[in-house]
Amino acid sequence: xxxxxxxxxxxxxxxxxxxxxxxxxxxxxxxxxxxxxxxxxxxxxxxxxxxxxxxxxxxxxxxxxxxxxxxxxxxxxxxxxxxxxxxxxxxxxxxxxxxxxxxxxxxxxxxxxxxxxxxxxxxxxxxxxxxxxxxxxxxxxxxxxxxxxxxxxxxxxxxxxxxxxxxxxxxxxxxxxxxxxxxxxxxxxxxxxxxxxxxxxxxxxxxxxxxxxxxxxxxxxxxxxxxxxxxxxxxxxxxxxxxxxxxxxxxxxxxxxxxxxxxxxxxxxxxxxxxx
Length: 276
Description:
mainly beta, 2 domains, four-stranded antiparallel sheet, 3 helices, elongated
């Protein structure tokens, strides 16, 4: 029974924010060892637990290698760009700032595809995992590809029309992205297309999260009263209240992870709350 409750808890959270990250850029640099290599991602909405996501590369058309790098349990705000590179030094030299994460899984070349996972399933793809990209429209050898605004995530099928391509070898002879022609338009992707679920999530905000001081603020766009139900990881309801002010008292709860169900009329969403 405990396993069932935990599964339901996990499913409710994944439904809330399992599609909130998207691949927006991929690059293969000209510096020593063909660096920097890696990807840019973008948070379409707030992500309370980045660790549900991971990435993997599919090399030389050999098919998926699965999720090779899982993100840590970080809280990410909507509109944040995330950079994962094969190493840090040359990435910093080329782009002028350090990557957020490094992983050997990003040791990619211009003919390699990349998959983005959420809860173990592919939610976005760059390139054809079963095709060597050399000579293909999406070949980014010593170059880059960048997602067009308001597109993605595209699931398991690569959408070539959702991307802009530099062409190969545009980084040759350069030492920085800014000196390339054309330069990769890093950190420029935007997404103003909200699904119905995104509209519901935009109705509520909850902070601080994680919380350490015994309370959490819950704000709504219309300032109406909110029905709040809090569940522990076993599915037991530990708080059930109607909130007319912003502050919810959680001082009675032990440190841990909880699911918070927020509802106003027909608008219902579930958020993850971490108490430390």
